[in-house]
Amino acid sequence: MSLATTFLGVNFANPFMNAAGVMCQTENELTSLAQSSSGSLITKSCTSAFREGNPEPRYSKAPLGSINSMGLPNLGFDFYFNYAKNTFPSVNVSNKPIFFSISGLSLEESTSMAQSLCPLATEGQVILELNLSCPNVPGKPQIGYDMEDMDRYLNAVSSVYSMPFGVKMPPYFDFAHFDSAAAVLNKYDKVAFVTCINSVGNGLVIDIDSEQTLIRPKAGFGGIGGSYVLPTALANVNAFYTRCPGKKIIGCGGVTSGSEAFMHILAGASLVQIGTQLQEEGVGVFDRILSELRTLMEKKGYTTLSDFHGKLKTL
Ligand SMILES: CC(C)(C)CCc1c(C(=O)O)[nH]c(=O)[nH]c1=O
């Protein structure tokens, strides 16, 4: 029985990692992930400069998951670049790969960061995940929801970034959108993987006792994660798995146990990110979910991930 897998030519001891944004903003958090049982890790989406982010409370647990409007708090590109280049190798006791998330506030900022990151990627030290939920100009929807802007973004990054990279996609809910988003991604061979999904945007969770919102920013509106989003996450994983045959899929959304991880892999995910459950449970979640997935595979007679990867059956 092995949970090992190869992704973009790199060996992973297991398919699990954190979702960008969760437990990956500071050096201590990143090192805690580096020394956890995860197969890999990813940094908090960064901007060029340090960002304070939104006023707290900006994250809250909710009955079936979580809500957040963090506002992109991060220590700035240089911090994560130096962490990946200099600090990570010294704390990476299990030689696990590290992903690097970028979310510039403009096409120019993201392109500039990608260009600066490229040397580290060519040395095989990082894998870029470009966050397409990044903000657009006010009045326009996030990049992932504007196909022309997404095309321009990928064209700009591809022209300065010489290595394969991936994109973090917002959730889609309409077959016309699965089709049009996949059509844009399939124009770029350098887009080697697609991470589905980011949080389901602008939900509203209400506390009935206080009659208040749970978070302060945006009048309580925020991205929804956790069990609430599992069916949408699985649909997006499978929709892009079938529409982008030349690309790998990373699944993210609603993974709280080995069962949901199994579903993501069955739907087409090669790696699986854990967000809300990691935030709530801590890094022990990786040990628990690894054990649960092993037990489930044993019960089903599977010995490797490829025995069931992408093999979802329809009726
Ligand atoms: C939502 C943005 C602030 C534009 C990007 C960062 C981000 C955040 C965040 O930092 O608020 N939260 C998420 O659930 N997903 C994200 O991609």
From TrEMBL:
Protein's name according to its UniProt entry: Dihydroorotate dehydrogenase (fumarate)
NCBIfam families reported in the protein's UniProt record: PRK02506.1
CC annotations in GO: cytoplasm
Similarity-based family: Belongs to the dihydroorotate dehydrogenase family. Type 1 subfamily.
GO molecular function terms listed in the Swiss-Prot or TrEMBL record: dihydroorotate dehydrogenase (fumarate) activity
Gene Ontology BP terms: 'de novo' pyrimidine nucleobase biosynthetic process; 'de novo' UMP biosynthetic process
Pathway assignment: Pyrimidine metabolism; UMP biosynthesis via de novo pathway
EC number from the UniProt entry: 1.3.98.1
Binding partners and assembly: Homodimer.
SUPFAM superfamilies listed in its UniProt record: FMN-linked oxidoreductases (SSF51395)
Catalysed reactions, as listed in the record: (S)-dihydroorotate + fumarate = orotate + succinate
Task performed by this protein: Catalyzes the conversion of dihydroorotate to orotate with fumarate as the electron acceptor. Molecular oxygen can replace fumarate in vitro.
Entry's localization field: Cytoplasm
PANTHER family hit by this protein: DIHYDROOROTATE DEHYDROGENASE (FUMARATE), DIHYDROOROTATE DEHYDROGENASE (QUINONE), MITOCHONDRIAL-RELATED
Keywords assigned: Cytoplasm, Flavoprotein, FMN, Oxidoreductase, Pyrimidine biosynthesis
The UniProt record lists the keyword rRNA-binding: no
